UniProtKB/TrEMBL annotation:
Provenance organism: Candidatus Limivivens merdigallinarum
Gene3D superfamilies: 3.40.50.12230
Pfam family name, one: Formyl_trans_N
High-level lineage: Bacteria, Bacillati, Bacillota, Clostridia, Lachnospirales
Top-rank lineage group of the source organism: Bacteria
InterPro entries linked to this entry: Formyl_transf_N (IPR002376), Formyl_transf_N_sf (IPR036477)
Protein name, UniProt field: phosphoribosylglycinamide formyltransferase 1
Keyword Transferase on entry: yes
């Protein structure tokens, strides 16, 4: 085989799935948890499978990778770090990355959110070679699925992680043997990266949008139990409102417009009733 070990960078379910697939190929493997704090779940799961687990400060991790002296596969699997030049120029390393979009569309962070907000009919994942330019490396494999009109970012992300694990297993044999043929990305001059601090429309819900865009905005900003983006807001008459949950129903019981009732703000559009539940006014 081309490699003597595999080093997986990331957090959540995907690093463990990749580690188990590599171990099935008798490849020594270690997981480097790149979450802000050590993930107790990932650590316990790795330990139960007898897979080496580490959580290092970013600088120490980069120093470790830059000093690797044996042919190694680096797998970036939901890894928030951009690998520096010192790592990418280590000739002992071949680094690949999983991106939650169909590159070259939506490079950068939180790609599933932008796919929903911009009304993409489908999305998916891309495994690609890591280069100095973010999400610009040659493509190893892509998998896609349709975005259903009820899907939020959490649901899309979970489906992407499942697909990413399947795709990794599909390319693994050829990847380890150095015979996988990548495809060059068709990059345009208008390519724009999404950053982690960015949100659709600056996280502001515009009640004048058509119903399709309001639905897309709310679902795009909805990561469920994951703390990924800031909470969206509604600005009315100089006041800012936030809410805990929302509901979208295809009904039209009220006059079009904005209505306050109990603990909810109702936005009635033709064929769509938006209920923003348990709202409160933010202090200015």
């Amino acid at each position: 085989m081309k490699f003597v070990q595999a080093l997986i960078l990331g957090t959540g379910r995907l690093p463990l799935d990749c580690a188990l697939a590599l171990r099935e190929k008798n490849m020594p493997v270690a997981i480097y948890d790149c979450d802000m704090a050590p993930s107790g779940i990932l650590k316990r799961q790795a330990k139960s499978k007898e897979i080496a687990y580490y959580h290092l400060p970013k600088k120490e991790l980069f120093d470790t990778l830059s000093k690797v002296e044996t042919p190694s596969l680096v797998v970036s699997a939901i890894n928030p770090y951009i690998l520096p030049k010192s790592v990418l120029e280590n000739g002992m390393l071949t680094a690949i990355n999983c991106h939650q979009a169909l590159l070259p569309r939506h490079p950068g962070r939180n790609a599933e959110m932008w796919a929903i907000y911009e009304g993409d009919a489908s999305t998916g994942i891309t495994w690609h070679l890591l280069t100095a330019d973010v999400d610009a490396g040659d493509i190893l494999i892509q998998k896609s699925f349709p975005i259903e009109e009820s899907m939020n970012s959490y649901q899309v992300f979970r489906r992407q992680i499942q697909l990413a694990g399947e795709a990794f297993k599909e390319i693994l044999e050829d990847l380890l043997n150095g015979v996988l043929s990548p495809t060059k990305q068709e990059l345009s001059g208008e390519r724009t990266l999404h950053y982690s601090y960015e949100m659709p429309n600056g996280a502001i819900l515009d009640p004048d949008w058509p119903q399709e865009k309001i639905s897309a905005f709310l679902r795009a900003c909805d990561y469920g139990i994951l703390n990924v983006v800031d909470r969206p807001k509604l600005l009315l008459n100089g006041a800012s409102f936030v809410w805990k949950t929302y509901k979208l129903t295809k009904e039209h019981p009220l006059p079009d417009g904005i209505h306050f009732t109990g603990d909810s703000i109702l936005i009635q559009k033709p064929g769509l009733l938006v209920t923003l539940k348990n709202y409160h006014k933010e202090e200015q």
